[in-house]
Design brief:
The complex is a heterodimer. Chain A has no helices and ten strands. By secondary structure, chain A is mainly beta. In chain A, the strands form two sheets. In chain A, strands 1, 3, 4, 8, 9 and 10 form a six-stranded mixed sheet that branches. In chain A, strands 2-7-6-5 form a four-stranded antiparallel sheet, with no helix packed on it. Chain B is mainly beta. Chain B is built from no helices and eleven strands. In chain B, the strands form two sheets. In chain B, strands 2, 4, 5, 6, 9, 10 and 11 form a seven-stranded mixed sheet that branches. Chain B has a four-stranded antiparallel sheet with strand order 1-3-8-7, with no helix packed on it. Chain B is globular and about 40 Å long. Classes of the chains: A mainly beta, B mainly beta.
């Protein structure tokens, strides 16, 4: 598999701590948002999504928060594990349309 | 094997040559997508397809051609490769609507010399 992103912003957290990864989106008309995880050598993997009529959505160990006022999206990972080490991308989709717009990504590094 | 596969996984080609990247999915998903991934740009959509024989441009379509004669295949062709097309290419598919979870292939690293 392949991955890029050697010079991405990096977030380092201790194993067991909670992680918060932030994303600023650009289009106020965006109405659907997705978080993806990309492990080294693999393609992106869907984590969780949220629609613009919501401000919070929870999954298994993950929570996505949406603040439309400041166009900000965050991904919270509870009890971070070594397997969570990856690059995380947010994507916005304006007008439930066709063009997914991905952010540049954040590398999460989990320290033992 | 079930899933979404890409071939080749690595390709080196010369400027001006035509090269085709293959994508195959076994889920019979309606939608298929091609992205490129570059440092500092994240993933950018090149083309997508809503069904066989239906394709549409994404954010960065120039220099690329796609076709979809069968639901399961979505090849991407660089008609005359340029160095700026050196990138990692990902194919993805989704089930019913474009606004849903997309499943990504493992990627193809293309180098144009």
């Amino acid at each position: 598999g392949e991955s890029v992103g050697l010079h991405l912003p990096t977030l380092s957290v201790q194993e067991g701590d909670n992680s918060i990864i932030n994303c600023a989106y650009s289009n106020s008309a965006s109405d659907y948002f997705i978080w993806y995880k990309q492990e080294s050598g693999k393609g992106p993997q869907f984590i969780i999504d949220i629609r613009s009529n919501m401000d919070k959505r929870q999954g298994q160990r993950v929570t996505v928060l949406l603040n439309k006022t400041v166009k900000h999206l965050s991904l919270q990972i509870a009890a971070t594990q070594p397997g969570d080490s990856a690059v995380y991308f947010c994507a916005e989709i304006p007008n439930y349309g066709q063009n997914f717009v991905f952010g540049p990504g954040t590398r999460l590094s989990v320290l033992p | 094997d079930a899933g979404i596969t890409q071939s080749p996984r690595y390709k080196i080609t010369e400027t001006g040559r035509q090269v085709t990247l293959m994508c195959h999915q076994t889920w019979s998903h309606s939608y298929m997508f091609w992205y490129r991934q570059d440092l500092g740009h994240g993933l950018r959509l090149i083309y997508y397809s809503a069904a066989a024989d239906i394709t549409d441009k994404g954010e960065v379509p120039d220099g690329y051609v796609v076709s979809r004669s069968k639901t399961e295949n979505f090849p991407l062709t660089l008609e005359s490769a340029t160095r700026s097309q050196t990138s990692v290419y990902f194919c993805a598919s989704s089930e019913v609507t474009v606004v849903s979870e997309q499943y990504f292939g493992p990627g193809t690293r293309l180098t144009v010399t």
